[in-house]
Amino acid sequence: MKKVNLLLAFFAAVALVTIQGCKEEDPLIVPTLIAPSTVTAVQIGAKSDVTFTFTAAEGYVSSTVTATGGTATVKTTPAADATEGSVVVEFTADNTAGAGSVALTLTDAKGQSVSQNAALNKTISAPPAIALSATTGSGVPGGTVVVTATITAANGVKTLTITGATTTPASPIALTGASPATQAVTIAIPATAVIGSKITAVFIAQDQQNLNSSAVSFEVNVNDPTIVLSGNLTAQTLDATKKYLIRGQTFIGDGVTVIIPAGTVLMGEKSTKGTLIVTRGGKLECNGTSSAPVVMTSNQAVNARDKGDWGGLVILGKAYSNQPNPAVEGISPAQNFGAADRANDADNSGVYNYLRVEYAGIELTPNNETNSITLGGVGSGTKMEYIQVSFGGDDGYEWFGGTVNAKYLISLSTWDDDFDCDYGWSGNVQFALIVRNPSAADQSQSNAFENDNGPNDNDTGAGTYTTGTFSNVTVFGPVDRVGRAMSANNVHSMDLRRRNATSVFNSVLTGFPTGLRMNQNTVYAQYTSGTPNGVLANNVLVATTSFAIGSGVLFTAGDLTTYWNASNTPVSVIPPNDATQDTFYAGLGLRIENFFARHAGATAYPSDPDFTLVGTGTLATGASFANAKFDETGRSTFFDETVVFKGAFGTTDWTNGWSEFQPIAKVY
């Protein structure tokens, strides 16, 4: 029994020890939390991140934060049950400088919590500042202006924002943070910007503490893109992307060449009577094309342009003139032209291709006028093709001596004469169009051709007369029918005066009250002598009165009729105001709608008429170049003798593309 009791006591002791061992557990590990070791500086009113690191053997559960001197929120936390990591707190400082703090409490999965404080210093730093390379700039519509901004920021640079303008780079511009920072900014000027207006670009920089700089302004003045040409020009090539203003009397002097590319627009200034003068020895190269002509026009606004707005184009050279060292009218200082001999008849004053001259020709001083284009002593080395003058204030083209040739000329609504030849001009013109405005005429009487030999009837001697030769000219005169209203100063298709010996072939001249006048006995002799200097042949003339003569002459209108009918189509009268007028012009092959008189006013004429012949009218055939005139030196190689039509057109309208018959509405 005693042994049994001892055995029972032994087992009881063992059980007790076992039970006590089972009740004991491993001790819990308290989490640790570490705050930043340095004081964090933060700008008042700004945000700053404060990072706490931790270990939590029992696993992370949550964290809470409190703050002094501002507000704080937990920004990022670790994953649930993480045993180590970081908690980022975003602190927003209030607006008072001084100390602040963030207290973070972290709790683990066993409910154990730990807290740490992070000290902060709320500071007041200087905001960023901007310095611009300039405060103002200027440019033209469609252009750009560049300005450089330099930003200094104690807290580092963050962004640059520009308002009030379109920029490159686009706003806002992100910057690197380094201070100082420089940034070039290109400011665009809209193509529609009003000349004289201003564009104000406002620059504001922001630093890494989100502080903004004071606003800095850059002002762009929108300038007129027009470049002024005045005085004595130097050798230069103009830029077709720019516009030019001819101010006052503007000279291209001896030895100077100015080149004008295709598509360039030059405007004559009305207030200064702008006039472009190529002096003797100077050169102008107008290199227009059929799709991009060079245009010289008025500087007045659309629908405000008028005849005589500016002085026009004056071209002077060294070729022969039958007057002693003449000077062009109206120009000061005096500009002489021509020569007393023919040594420089091949003189070259430049190239004039695809050129329009609009609203030019003006009285510069009493009785001294310029024309749309004035040519004085211009030599045959000068090239002139595809030229239109429109709404001129005096003559369309006036040749004072010289030997220059031209093809494809247009004279539209010229105030005085369309083709005026003087001082022994002996050049040639083929393919020319005249369209007369019935309301536009000068008190001195206006004519399609007004040709003289000199300022008086003095005999300048054999070989010195005005013998310029025209072929293939079409004239749509001031009226199309009987009864059409017109200025009584529109008078002659051809007015031949003062020993003139101009020749006209293969042409059609319509719509003037009088067809042909010869003013002096000396003129009649030039055409009817045994070896005439002037010839009128193979032409068609339509007029109210066929011929007129000057006072005191020894020949009669009947003599002119005889002379005309010998080599030309007998004159037709202007048709009546009935249906026969359409039939009459169709019989010739002319389009009746091309008469200016058919349209109600200067703004009603079409912008791009069709001048080709209609059907099989009588003008479609019959051209002849058999006359001895075409064999003369200076003429034998100039004329295109393959054409069969009379007048300026056959089946091709060479005015297409480059001309403009409604320039008052043209936007340049």
Set down the secondary structure blueprint.
Layout: H1 2-23, E1 32-34, E2 40-43, E3 47-55, E4 60-68, E5 70-76, E6 84-93, E7 98-108, E8 113-123, E9 129-132, E10 136-139, E11 144-152, E12 157-163, E13 166-168, E14 173-174, E15 181-188, E16 198-207, E17 216-222, E18 226-233, E19 236-237, E20 243-252, E21 257-261, E22 265-268, E23 275-278, E24 283-287, E25 294-298, E26 312-316, E27 350-358, E28 363-365, E29 368-369, E30 373-376, E31 383-390, E32 397-400, E33 406-412, E34 419-422, E35 428-435, E36 446-451, E37 469-476, E38 490-496, E39 503-505, E40 508-518, H2 521-528, E41 536-537, E42 540-549, H3 557-567, H4 580-588
Parallel strand pairs: 2-8, 10-17, 18-20, 19-21, 20-22, 20-23, 21-24, 22-25, 23-26, 24-27, 25-27, 26-30, 27-31, 30-32, 31-33, 32-34, 33-35, 34-36, 35-37, 36-38, 37-39, 37-40, 38-40, 39-41, 40-42
Antiparallel strand pairs: 1-3, 3-6, 4-7, 5-6, 7-8, 9-11, 11-15, 12-14, 12-16, 13-15, 16-17, 28-29
